[in-house]
Amino acid sequence: MTYDVAIVGGGMVGATLAVALAPLNLRVALIEAIPHNAAAQPSFDERTTALSNGSRRILEAIGVWSALDAAATPIAKIHVSDQGRFGFARIDAREQGLKAMGYVVANRALGSALWSRLSSQETKVFCPAVLSGLTANDEAVKIEFAESGAKIAIDAKLIVAADGAQSVVRSAFGVAAEVRDYGQTAVITTVLPQRFHDNVAYERFTPEGPLALLPLDGGRCTLVLTLAKDAAHFALAWSDQEFLAEVQRRFGFRLGRFLKVGRRVPYPLSLTQSERTSAPRCVIIGNAAQGLHPVAGMGFNLGLRDVASLAELIAENARGAADARKYADPGNAQLLHEYDAWRRADRGGVIAFTDGLVRMFSNPSSVVARVRNLGLLAFDLLPPAKSALSRLSTGGGGRVPKLARGVALT
């Protein structure tokens, strides 16, 4: 069987692409190793994701947001501070003319919404399926895998690597990736503060690493506590009271005392950046192309713009071929070149911004500390700077994909 597009990886980014391509009447296959509702599925675990407004529009345009809206917590304000310094910065959605700065959604809810949508469309899903071989030629890619013990081989005009930071597809196409270990671990859990969060998202930089609090329903917050690897090992063994005391010490009492904490889960942090975003008949998206530190919450949002850009180019290619009464080849070299060029500025800007934040706020120099303190104060006083950051978080610095503007592909 020959498919137009084969997506390897059915996590948040891969599944979104499969849903986005559904209206284009293409033959699409999705290959995923672990069922979306399995406890071992790494994409749809107990973590939450902060979605930008552009990401909300993408999910809305492909028909997924309606299943998430009721479970999504809006972010009314963002508050950034540096422990031990008086500088801070605030961004208010109303001042930016927005209903919300973004939305916090449970990964499991997002997975359920995406895969429910997949089940209602004609995408061919192979799951659980494990790759065993990839062979590319000028015309197509032969993909070999095992599904429930049965050996299967298909051809695809375009293969999409959406299989995460340790991408097997990316490696099979000889695309190297630079990995920078931050020497940190994010301990992620849920906490209940004494005071209601008022839908404010907090980013607090401390000498030991950043701390983020994202608003959830019921007054709860998702906590992302970044620690050195050794410290994270000990933090996981602390009692709830010891853990909450440490969070209190770092965050302060803006929300009163922290009363309860949920199960703590560790996630090692690094920057993974592929040297290219495509290879002949292959496109690399999401964490397979760039795995980011969660400090600015931009990783998944960047991956969704990968999806929206690629889907738009595939749609344009199919439409152009139909007008010329010829077969559309979504794996043609010109399409891949256009994808690389389109994603270059957005991808490079977000990677540099995120990595720069990690480096700047982990620098122990007192001079750097004074500079960043003044920077936060200046940012808080300059509306154009806030607007610029808002545009960066939605990919608004260059060509914005149709789906990110809420415009359907067809």
Characterise this structure:
It is built from ten helices and 20 strands. By secondary structure, the chain is an alpha+beta fold. Strands 5, 6, 12, 13, 14, 15, 16, 17 and 20 form a nine-stranded mixed β-sheet that branches. Strands 1, 2, 8, 9, 10, 11, 18 and 19 form an eight-stranded mixed β-sheet that branches. A three-stranded antiparallel β-sheet has the order 3-7-4.
For the largest beta-sheet, the strand count, sense and barrel status come to: 9 strands, mixed
> What top-tier CATH class of the domain at 2-72 and 102-179 and 270-362 and 397-405 fits best?
Alpha Beta
Based on DSSP secondary structure assignment, what is the total number of beta strands? 20
> Shape from CA axes?
globular
- Corresponding CATH superfamily of the domain at 2-72 and 102-179 and 270-362 and 397-405: FAD/NAD(P)-binding domain
Mean pLDDT reading? 87
Provide the β-strand percentage band. 25-35%
Task: Count the DSSP helices.
Answer: 10
Specify the helix fraction band: 25-40%
Instruction: Give me the CATH architecture of the domain at 2-72 and 102-179 and 270-362 and 397-405, please.
Output: 3-Layer(bba) Sandwich
Protein structure class:
alpha+beta
Distance between the termini: 26 Å
Radius of gyration, CA atoms, in whole angstroms? 22 Å
Q: Kindly identify the CATH topology of the domain at 2-72 and 102-179 and 270-362 and 397-405.
A: FAD/NAD(P)-binding domain
Q: Uncertain spans, ≥5 residues at pLDDT below 50? A: 365-382
